[in-house]
Design a protein that fits this description.
Radius of gyration: 14 Å
CATH superfamily: YbaK/aminoacyl-tRNA synthetase-associated domain
Helix content: 10-25%
CATH topology: YbaK protein
Structural class: alpha/beta
Low-confidence stretches: none
Length: 159
Amino acid sequence: MSKAPSTNATRLLKQHGISFTEHLYHYEDKGGTMVSARELGIPEHAVIKTLVMEDEKAAPLLMLMHGDLEVSTKALARQLGVKSVQPCKSEVAQRHSGYLVGGTSPFGTKKAMPVYAEASIFELEHIFINGGSRGFLVEMKPKELLKVLAVKQVEVGLP
């Protein structure tokens, strides 16, 4: 594989002194976290997907979730005190984040958005999260997220 890219995400992590390891893998369109887990030989539960979502007023937010779980949008809306939450369309997500879908990182987004994370992510020893490009994950301790992002923990994961 080629050299890891320099992205807004990795520049922000370096700027904050965050310790991380770069992992490149062969990206497959619509392959999701199952592909990255398989390619890197890691549990899909440790791959954290970054979802760009919006409430009923189209206010965007980021949701960090284990790769092998889904987000209960009803539970998330309830915990946020809004009527509804749904994933943004690809082009809208891209406009908010500045990243291509499949390469969305919570770090260095184009627009500042509130960040929510499944609470159990912080129980893992290491997480693998998008580094800002398709086929590129960064590995770090979950507590490092809290040094860079104002994360609010929620419990909205569904098997």
